[in-house]
Amino acid sequence: QGPVCTNLGLKPGQRLTVKGKVAPNAKSFVMNLGKDATLLGLHFNPRFDAHGDVNTIVCNSKKVEEWGAEHREAVFPFQKGGTAEITFAVNQNDVTVHLPGHQFTFPNRLNLSVFDYFDTQGDFTLQSISWE
């Protein structure tokens, strides 16, 4: 478990940019964005080799203990031992995830009007976090 941020106050039109380093022997890492630890609007989970997925980004949402349907992205711009910069842009109805050379959107299934919570877990060392 890496750092946990609360009271972010991210609203539509704002962005959160995360920079860090992927572990040399990484299996997977997670970034969660939501209202709090029980209401996750975006569970972002790049998997190098975990849960039967190889080089796949799995996204989901979580309402208390109930997970939604998994969304998979085939583009995988992460390297073991490399650095990563990921930007989450909050829109009215979804979140746009900006990766190196690729972007995709994930719907705001919980209809969150503000994203207050962010955490990182797994094989990723957070170096900087900024929002605008």
Automatic annotation (TrEMBL):
Keyword Translocase attached: no
Top-level taxon of the source organism: Eukaryota
GO cellular component, one term: extracellular space
SUPFAM superfamilies, per the entry: Concanavalin A-like lectins/glucanases
Galectin domain: residues covered: 2-132
Keyword Oxidoreductase: no
Alphabetic keyword roster: Lectin
Signal peptide from the UniProt entry: none
Gene Ontology MF terms: lactose binding; laminin binding
UniProt cross-references to InterPro entries, sorted A to Z: ConA-like_dom_sf, Galectin-like, Galectin_CRD
PANTHER family: GALECTIN, GALECTIN-1
Name of the featured protein: Galectin
Source organism of the structure: Setophaga kirtlandii (Kirtland's warbler)
Highest classification ranks of the organism: Eukaryota, Metazoa, Chordata, Craniata, Vertebrata
Gene designation: Leg4
